[in-house]
Design brief:
The chain has 201 residues and is an alpha+beta fold. It has two domains: 4-142 and 145-155, Methyltransferase, Cobalt-precorrin-4 Transmethylase, Domain 2, CATH 3.30.950; 161-201, no CATH class. The chain has helices at residues 20-28, 49-62, 90-102, 173-178; strands at 4-6, 15-17, 38-41, 67-71, 106-107, 113-119, 122-132, 141-142, 145-150, 153-156. The strands form three sheets. A four-stranded mixed sheet has the order 3-4-7-6. The relative contact order is 0.14.
Amino acid sequence: MNSSSFYAGPERPLLRIDAWEDLVAAVQAGALTETQWVELKAAPPAAASKANLELARDLASLSVDGGVLLIGVRDPGGTAQDLVGSDDPLDALKGRVDQVAGSTRIQPPLHLQLTAVRHPDDATRHVLLVAVPASPEAPHMVDERYWGRSATGKRPLRAARRPGAARAWSPVASGAATGLGAGSRRACRHAPRKRSCRCCR
């Protein structure tokens, strides 16, 4: 298995996970608790619309700065017993996570990196590492709200600003395509936008 490294916070060591033993060492060192960059799930979300919506919010929130979702680790991960693992069929679990990330639930959709770490004594049990790269299109919208994270986990954002935009961004097709602010109806000829220009305001 290829090495997987994850940033867990400014005062924490880089998480390097190659095998189950690395997960055990991480929880025993106190490196696996929920932070702005880490989300933990003891069990996979139920195969239901409400659970998929919650999963979409988790993924969208991690896309702002980048982070990792670990499915099969109980929060707070402090002992080896918190590595409960998942016995859901791995291919089906990966498919569900990928489907939620690429569905219309998240706008714009996300691209993920999925890695499974298997239990050394139980081939049916695993922890799924869902790496969410920092997105240049963040923040992403779920259920008509933008999502980000704080030190204790995900939270809705009061207002969202697209990088380089002078006004709050709305994912309206014309605005997203032309780089105009929310509610703009005409194309702007200026790049970067000028505040003195009527079509830029």
